[in-house]
Amino acid sequence: MSAAPLISAKGVWKFYGDFAALRDINLDVAPGTTLALLGRNGAGKTTLLRMFAALSSPSRGSITISGAAAGAQETLRSPAQRRRIGVIGHSIWIYDDLTAAENLEFFARLYGPRAPHEKIEHWLKTTGLDHVRNRQAREFSRGMRQRLAIARAFFHDPEILLLDEPFTALDDRAADLLSRLIKQAHAAGRTTVISTHQLREALALATDVAILDRGRLAFRGPSTDDLRAAPEDFYRAYTEPRA
Amino acid sequence: MDVLRGTFIIAFKDLRVELRSKEVINAALSFALVILLLFSFAFDPSAEETREISGGLLWLVFIFAGILVLNRSFARETVNDCLDGLVASPLSGAPILLGKAVSNTVLLLVLELVTLPIFGIFYNVRWTVGLGWLLLVLLLGTWGLTVVGTLFSALTVNVSLREAMLPLLVFPITLPILMAAVQLTTTLFSGEPIAPDMVWLRVLIGCDIIFTVLAGALVESVLVG
């Protein structure tokens, strides 16, 4: 018997004016899954991920994230639920006028993890930013800023990771770090949803695949060896070419 | 998360960022001083009539400069999409709004306390008489202005003409607050005392409570699309 879903989208539609960005999405994500959410630009990946992160609400349908307790369901916007989620968005979500350490301190205050100072030290070291901890983020190179964003997302040891195009424009060091952290999260039983159109990188990490095409869920299944061997052919079969 | 704790976290962060960049306070203070100077050319500072409208002149300076502060309140969160980081965090909308309103109030009060002595010199106004009451009126008037302005700053954060939109939305709604603050300030500048049961003081306190509750209740739907 399969595990009860941790994240569940039921009949989700999202409208921007008359445009339907998502059309009747039904998608369950079991605990411990690393799901690659694939699709072309404009397929609705970011819209769906933002709803999972409670940054946006469905126009129709519902999104639920189950509680740790059996059968418990809390509202998606409750502080307890959001404390369970770590997000890497399109942008880095860090303050340029604060130092690396101050940025992490600020998010530590928001999320209230145990032993915040030890965690700040750990993540500054893990991301290789401990030697520039007192420099403002605006002085950082792009790669350093990306590593700080990774630290911000993983900092509070979230049960659910929502990563929107996380490998886009990452330098080698940051990409290696992120891949390693996603593998560690999977090994620790964490649930990860990676929205991307970078097939090979995502499939190397994913246990499951979902393909969105023009707002509809076109495919949902496990990431198999066949799929990993020829991901482009598989992907093309489920996505219509744009006019 | 406790609303008070969340409010403090946001206010502390915003003030720390502002202390470092001095982006808003420098612009708003310069703007306030320029308006004061222009008003002193436009009106005869020695005339008795001018002193009678001194409360209105002072609050005009405060609200014009205040709009600069309020415009940047949520706009600064758009850099690196930090607003998404706040909304995705365990904080609910109310402490985000209240934290920003507290930070804006502190910045505006600093601006007001710097501007006040200069205003007193330009307009020959004895502003130190009834100083305790004046500080209370400044605090209540500024809070009312900033709590409404901060809500609309969130509402207009992604609007391309937000600099023009914000005053158009804020000024009409804060009219009762501004009228009360102007009346009370003019009374104090005339050397008359304020009684605790004075109607304009009640209006000011009542509006502050109503707008704070309304803004706290509405902000969540403003922030989550």
Note down, in words, how this protein is organized.
The complex is a heterodimer of chains A (243) and B (225). Chain A has helices at residues 45-52, 79-83, 100-111, 116-126, 142-154, 172-187, 199-205, 225-229, 231-238; strands at 7-16, 19-29, 34-38, 60-65, 85-88, 160-164, 191-196, 208-213, 216-222. Chain A has 243 residues and is an alpha/beta fold. In chain A, a hairpin with a 2-residue loop joins strand 8 and strand 9. In chain A, helix 3 packs across helix 4 (116-126) and helix 5 (142-154) runs parallel beside helix 6. Chain A is globular, with a radius of gyration of 18 Å. The model of chain A has no long low-confidence stretch (mean pLDDT 89). With 225 residues, chain B is mainly α. Chain B has one domain. In chain B, helix 2 runs antiparallel to helix 4 (54-75), helix 2 (23-42) runs parallel beside helix 6 and helix 4 runs antiparallel to helix 6. The longest helix of chain B has 31 residues, at 93-123. In chain B, 47% of the residues are buried. Classes of the chains: A alpha/beta (243), B mainly alpha (225). Chain A binds chain B through residues 53-57, 77, 79-80, 82-83, 85, 87, 89-98, 102, 106-107, 109-112, 136, 152, and chain B through 1, 6, 9, 13, 16-17, 20-21, 79-82, 84-92, 220, 224-225.
